[in-house]
Amino acid sequence: MHGLRIPSSTALLLCGGLQFAGAAAMAADCDGSSDPCSVDLGRVTASFAAGAASYGAEVLLVNGSDASFSPPQSLPALQVIHTAASDGFRIQPQLYAYVGGSGVQGLHEVVATLQFAGLSFTADPGYQLHGVQAVITGSFSLVGNGYGGLGMPGAVQWNDSNFSTTVALDPAASDLSIGFSLAASYVEGDDGTAASYGAGSASIDSLEFIVSVSPVPEPAPAALLAAGAVVLHWLARRRRARR
């Protein structure tokens, strides 16, 4: 299996406005422009340095014609995730491609990319962050002489053709770039049958940003008592000094 190949000329598509799904959706001032904006996730604020344009995705046919894919147009609706110990959001990019398998002569190749750039997270007053994780799920399958690869920043776990990967990110710079490549060829023999053939399919089904968060610890009772004792001792000394 070869690694992900991304042409240097590949350009990311700009997305539309940030949309929300689910009853837990929070208000946001992201209007679809490239101006910086933020999203209140509950106890955590997600900031997009380039507004809606902080997200980009693309599927590109780089060779041949025997391929099908669903080109992404904009950032999918954000679904807010809220648990006792974490806040975050989920998108379902439905980034999918299939290559080969139809008996079209030649080499056929597709690459797909998905990227968040300028994404960061900060805790709201009274809370503290303990880390950010990106959780990615999808599928990847090859048949015959099909080949390709996943471009993932973390170790990939497999369940048949389905995969998942989790990667730790910096809350102050949670940029992420992922993708896949697929290729397959069909060569017709002298007798009119396939001398060589292949096929491949891949998808990125969901992407979650999970932020671990907890309340800022309150001062321990013992510490408060000790501080109170120090203050009382200081006041007593001041009274004695005035006599």
Topology:
Layout: E1 13-14, E2 20-21, E3 37-40, E4 44-48, E5 55-63, E6 67-69, E7 78-82, E8 86-91, E9 95-100, E10 106-116, E11 119-123, E12 127-144, E13 147-151, E14 156-159, E15 162-169, E16 176-188, E17 194-196, E18 198-215, H1 221-242
Parallel strand pairs: 2-7
Antiparallel strand pairs: 1-5, 3-4, 4-11, 5-10, 6-9, 7-8, 8-18, 9-18, 10-16, 12-15, 12-18, 13-16, 14-15, 16-17
Structure description:
- The chain is elongated, with a radius of gyration of 26 Å.
- The protein has 243 residues and is mainly beta.
- Strands 2, 6, 7, 8, 9, 12, 14, 15 and 18 form a nine-stranded mixed β-sheet that branches. Strands 1, 5, 10, 13, 16 and 17 form a six-stranded antiparallel β-sheet that branches. Strands 3-4-11 form a three-stranded antiparallel β-sheet, with no helix packed on it.
- It has one helix and 18 strands.
Provide key terms for this protein.
nine-stranded mixed sheet, elongated, six-stranded antiparallel sheet, 243 residues, disordered N terminus, mainly beta, 1 helix
Number of strands: 18
What's the overall geometry?
A: elongated
Number of helices: 1
Kindly report how far apart the N and C termini lie: 88 Å
Q: Decide which structural class fits the backbone.
A: mainly beta
Unreliable residue stretches: 1-16, 22-28
H/E element sequence: EEEEEEEEEEEEEEEEEEH
Instruction: Output mean pLDDT.
Output: 84
In a nutshell, what does this entry contain?
The protein is mainly beta.
